[in-house]
Amino acid sequence: MKSTPNSSAGSTGKSLLILASSFIAAFCIQVTVHELGHYFAGLICGAQNGKVFLHPFYNSQVVFASIGGLSSQVWVGVMGIVADLVLAVGLSAL
User: Fold this and answer.
1) Reported pTM
2) How far apart are CA 33 and CA 48, in angstroms?
3) Interhelix angle 70-93/7-45, nearest 10 degrees
4) Of 31, 33, 64, 87, whose CB has the highest number of CB atoms within 10 Å?
5) 52 has which bridge partners?
6) What is the CA radius of gyration of the chain?
7) Are 80 and 42 in contact (CB under 8 A)?
8) How far apart are CA 70 and CA 87, in angstroms?
9) Are strands 61-63 and 51-53 parallel, antiparallel or unpaired?
């Protein structure tokens, strides 16, 4: 009698690939939203020459040539976390 390959092994591999891909995509979206939160807060506070550097797994950052006073710097710093919370609440509401 011939042995047939297990069909569930192929579907398990596909499922793991889809799961891993969805986690990677979700992480990249989260990093982008987080950094854009900093960027838009900087624009609102009047920061000059903002640049967003996105790297999915290393060191994403927003760099401004100048940001106003201490309160503006705190506002820009906190808005990354606030953007994450808005994304999380919005997606959980869906």
Assistant:
1) 0.80
2) 20
3) 140
4) 64
5) 62
6) 21
7) no
8) 26
9) antiparallel
